[in-house]
Write a structure and sequence with these properties.
GO terms for molecular function: glycosyltransferase activity. The chain has two helices and 27 strands. By secondary structure, it is mostly beta strands. A hairpin with an 8-residue loop joins strand 16 and strand 17.
Length: 385
């Protein structure tokens, strides 16, 4: 069992990188070109432009698939709190009596009176392709005409947190689609990395952070998944593992129909609260030593917690086996980066890594910073040896 004091200490060691910057903030988004324009009257704003999927285009440039959370400037009016919803090709507002709602979190509100947790969102998310230079550090173009927006009822509260993988000659993008029907994982495909076709639901209710491996293993597709629930069974006393959300694995013959893998994937260690909650970050990419997976661990704090990024190398032939890992955070929230947009901040201590691309002697790593902006970091490959 790992030494608990060593694990706790490792969680506080901050790394610094020579290339680390915000490349997109809410002020860079032109909402006059939003899919919502012309549908609702109240003013909206960009609550966050964050959690970007990342891929390399055929022209060598990088492309971020950015989650744009478009929110009502004043969600509360006329004694009600309002949510934006897609409804059969148009966007509408739903009004809920204020006395039924808890509005402490600016991103959502919780409704009282049910036998379980029920919430609605003050924003609706859609995906915006943003093209970057090959090093990921400068914007080349924002492709508003290629935006990915809700198109059926299972996405009526929005599309969130794209993860992009190239398998063979095809790009695959998993997203989280949100609705009262289900909170599920949906799949898109592309032949060029820019024009996306909706395929279908691939994982059902509250199975988040699905990351398709960038390559086949013994002829099959593999993916990391993260099913959520309200009940977890305890590990035996003295176990090195903590019960709770963990990163599972699934396999598929075609990338559309998935079977859970019987062995567990990456689990939270009992010796540290830094991974009391965890989930996948970047699609696993193949190295000489195995599959490199970046993932997030969450330390409880206030409403949201402290999000950090960690890494593991997984066995080439059986990704349920960890070759090596590091309990020190790879990335943490960087207040120096967000200081120029401090007036927009509504969360602290959150970095959520969602994309990776090969940069030669380093990886170009894309993250959402503070649920607000897109961050690009160059991380030396020698760090993972």
């Amino acid at each position: 069992m790992p030494d608990s004091q060593a694990l706790q200490g490792a969680a506080t060691q901050t790394r610094h990188y020579d290339v680390d910057k915000l490349v997109l903030t809410p002020d860079d988004i032109d909402l006059s070109q939003s899919p919502l324009r012309g549908h609702i009257d109240p003013e909206t704003y960009v609550l966050g432009a964050f959690n970007p999927g990342l891929l390399r285009l055929p022209n060598g440039n990088l492309l971020m698939m950015v989650r744009v959370a478009e929110a009502l400037r004043q969600p509360i009016f006329d004694g009600h709190v309002h949510a934006i919803r897609w409804d059969d090709g148009r966007y509408v507002l739903d009004a809920w009596p204020l006395e039924l709602a808890d509005t402490a979190d600016p991103r959502k509100f919780t409704l009282h009176g049910g036998g379980w947790k029920i919430m609605a969102l003050t924003s609706l998310s859609w995906l915006l392709p943003v093209e970057l230079t090959p090093d990921g550090l400068e914007r080349v173009a924002i492709h508003y005409d290629k935006a990915v927006a809700p198109q059926n009822s299972l996405q009526c509260y929005g599309i969130e947190d794209a993860r992009c993988s190239k398998v063979g000659d095809r790009w695959l993008m998993t997203t989280c689609s949100v609705s009262p029907e289900r909170h599920c994982t949906t799949l898109y495909s592309s032949e060029n990395g820019l024009d996306w076709t909706f395929e279908d639901i691939v994982l059902d209710h509250q199975n988040k952070d699905m990351l398709i491996f960038e390559g086949l293993i013994n002829g099959e597709y593999w993916a990391q998944t993260r099913p959520l629930g309200d009940l977890y069974f305890a590990y035996p006393p003295g176990s090195e593992w903590r019960a709770g959300p963990s990163i599972n694995l699934s396999t598929s013959k075609d990338g559309l129909y998935w079977k859970p893998y019987r062995n567990p994937g990456i689990r939270p260690h009992s010796g540290t609260v830094a991974t009391a909650r965890m989930g996948g970050g970047t699609p696993p990419t193949l190295t000489d030593d195995g599959w490199l997976a970046l993932w997030h661990g969450v330390e409880p704090k206030e409403i949201v917690g402290i999000y950090r990024t960690y890494w593991s190398i997984l066995d080439k032939d059986d990704p349920s086996q960890t070759v090596r890992t590091d309990h020190r955070p790879l990335l943490e929230a960087n207040p120096d980066l967000t200081r120029p947009i401090d007036h927009l901040m509504y969360l602290r201590d959150v970095v959520f890594t969602t994309g990776i691309a090969d940069g030669g002697d380093h990886y170009v790593v894309a993250s959402g910073e503070a649920d607000l902006a897109c961050r690009i970091t160059h991380i030396p490959k020698t760090l993972f040896i």
